[in-house]
Amino acid sequence: MVTPTALEAELFAVAGSVLDPELPVLTLQELGVVRAVRLGAADVVEVELTPTYTGCPAIEAMSLDIERALREHGVREVTVRTVLTPAWSTDDISAEGRRKLREFGIAPPRTVREPGPVPLELGPTRTGPPTVHAPAAPGAGHTVPGGSVAAVADPAVEPAAAPDPIRCPLCGSADTELLSRFSSTACKALRRCLACREPFDHFKEL
Length: 206
What we know:
Layout: H1 6-16, H2 28-31, E1 34-39, E2 44-49, H3 59-72, E3 77-82, H4 95-103, E4 106-107, E5 126-128, E6 133-134, E7 142-143, E8 149-150, E9 157-159, E10 176-180, E11 188-193, E12 199-203
Parallel strand pairs: 2-3, 4-12, 5-9
Antiparallel strand pairs: 1-2, 6-8, 7-8, 10-11, 11-12
Helix pairs in contact: 1-3
């Protein structure tokens, strides 16, 4: 690994301070998409930028904003190069970025995986109590000692006691449900808190 020079570190901070065009509460450095800044011959600066996913429509706006910020900082020539390896992951979002998302009313993504292939999983649409008890009724549920009936678990419900449930950024409740797998941008889903009844965006894990 090549250690950046003091000037490259300074220029990295400038490029990283650019706000994300789709989530202006985050800088590109907090989002984790600025990979490196290299100073070449004749004061030419090359920035390596990784999109959140291939074909991300915001990559062009990010590139133009980085070029503008570096030129205003005194750099004469800037090249922004898109790099796809290693692929970006929501794990690249910094702790400060996650805090800002939560304060902005967006549930931050959970830590998802160790490095390696990305498994495809179909998850539940709702988080809530893992078991529901109701009075005994003929043919309903599964009879347990004492005459009560434990209702069959809804496969669309994720137990609130799951290792890392999606929590409402407004009240902190883990009792939430999925309304739509896509929200204002492709990287977010729309959920609703069943405690405070408020809808909120969730930055999907990748």
